[in-house]
């Protein structure tokens, strides 16, 4: 038997809330973490249709990609559309959880699911999420109780945190040498006399944002009047997290066929799948971005891909992209524009698999196939060559 807290722990481990954008609203919207969960429904949107499905199938948790309460509200009265949904969920004992931009940049995340649906072997993110800037501090402490004193002070100031570990350090033995000059007040040795002391070289990493605090802690805790230290800026480490993904097809294929591949891979929508580019162009290396991705058009062009698949492409950015033509990095990629909902729907299966793998048979998972894309009908001009 699993609780809502058990499921939330699994989801927040896969899609850490601290990866979400500052403007986003992710996490538990309603529900008691202590309640038992036997069924979970995954969907892109929290809409009346998916809420009905969650209640109708006996799910105790509805997990969605898009937030219900993205913008701040001062109330959730049942006489408002969103308030009515919340009241229905609460009265029916159904919790609501959202993983939005944190799922977009997670590894794996929304764009990994889209890439997998298209048959791409993923190489990495299109726009890597920058890893926190790190420093390394190296200091030299006389052997004895001062080592633990300095280590504790640096740890308390924010040094030595690596992933899920704290107080991380490396120490080696050596010999320090110094000559106190007039005006010095040495903790060890005498003015005018060369001193050699058994010391420990202590190394710890720290977030660059904690540099000032860590240096202050070192000076306060170190027994020497003038503690020796090195402060090194560490090179950024490539991240597997980030927006979008770049991958490769098993073999190249004409752009027209690739566009049909995208259409076959994603659920049908009134919006359909649109391609911008030479139908005969060979496509092998592809960038994808689940959701609205025209902000990454320039990045896709610099990535040297043959095609870029995303949603909600606007007219002017697409035209400007095409006008760019061939640049120093090669021809601009062909564009494939899909419905926003369809581009993110494969993530539901990914998230369901995460819970299934972690909690086994104690929680049944399912993915909603209700089309919550807002576009419900479409028509094609009888003369596609006609100009307005």
From TrEMBL:
Coiled coil: none annotated. Keywords: Metal-binding. Residues 374-388 have a biased composition (Polar residues). Pfam families: DUF34_NIF3. Belongs to the GTP cyclohydrolase I type 2/NIF3 family. Gene3D superfamilies: 3.30.70.120, NIF3 (NGG1p interacting factor 3)-like. Homohexamer. This is GTP cyclohydrolase 1 type 2 homolog. InterPro entries: DUF34/NIF3 (IPR002678), DUF34/NIF3_bac (IPR017221), DUF34/NIF3_sf (IPR036069), N-reg_PII/ATP_PRibTrfase_C (IPR015867). The lineage of its organism: Bacteria, Bacillati, Actinomycetota, Actinomycetes, Pseudonocardiales. Residues 367-388 are annotated as: Disordered. PANTHER family: GTP CYCLOHYDROLASE 1 TYPE 2 HOMOLOG, NGG1 INTERACTING FACTOR 3.
């Amino acid at each position: 038997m699993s609780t809502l807290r058990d499921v939330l722990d699994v989801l927040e481990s896969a899609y850490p809330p601290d990866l979400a954008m500052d403007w986003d609203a992710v996490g538990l919207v309603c529900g008691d973490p202590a309640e038992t969960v036997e069924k979970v429904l995954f969907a892109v949107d929290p809409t009346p249709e998916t809420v009905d499905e969650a209640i109708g199938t006996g799910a105790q948790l509805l997990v969605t990609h898009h937030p219900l309460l993205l913008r701040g509200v001062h109330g959730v009265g049942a006489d408002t559309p969103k308030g009515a949904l919340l009241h229905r969920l609460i009265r029916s004992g159904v919790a609501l959880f959202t993983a939005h931009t944190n799922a977009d940049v997670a590894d794996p995340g929304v764009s990994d699911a889209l890439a997998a649906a298209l048959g791409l072997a993923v190489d990495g993110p299109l726009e890597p999420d920058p890893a926190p800037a790190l420093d390394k501090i190296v200091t030299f402490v006389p052997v004895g109780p001062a080592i633990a004193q300095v280590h504790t002070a640096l740890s308390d100031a924010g040094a030595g945190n690596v992933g899920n570990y704290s107080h991380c350090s490396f120490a080696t033995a050596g010999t320090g040498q110094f000559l106190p000059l007039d005006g010095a007040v040495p903790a060890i040795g005498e003015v005018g006399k060369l001193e050699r002391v058994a010391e420990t070289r202590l190394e710890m990493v720290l977030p660059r944002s904690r540099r000032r605090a860590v240096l202050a802690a070192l000076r306060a805790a170190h027994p020497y009047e003038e503690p020796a230290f090195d402060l090194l800026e560490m090179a950024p480490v490539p991240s597997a997290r980030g927006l979008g993904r770049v991958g490769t097809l098993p073999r190249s294929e004409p752009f027209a066929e690739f566009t049909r591949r995208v259409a076959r891979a994603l659920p049908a929508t009134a919006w359909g799948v649109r391609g911008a580019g030479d139908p005969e162009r060979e496509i092998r290396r592809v960038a994808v971005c689940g959701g609205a991705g025209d902000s990454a058009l320039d990045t896709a062009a610099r990535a040297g891909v043959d095609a870029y698949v995303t949603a909600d492409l606007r007219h002017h950015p697409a035209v400007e992209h095409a006008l760019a033509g061939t640049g120093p990095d090669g021809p601009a990629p062909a564009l494939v524009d899909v419905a926003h909902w369809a581009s993110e729907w494969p993530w539901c299966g990914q998230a369901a698999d995460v819970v299934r793998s972690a909690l086994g048979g104690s929680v049944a998972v399912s993915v909603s196939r209700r089309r919550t894309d807002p576009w419900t009908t479409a028509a094609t001009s009888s003369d596609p060559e006609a100009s307005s």
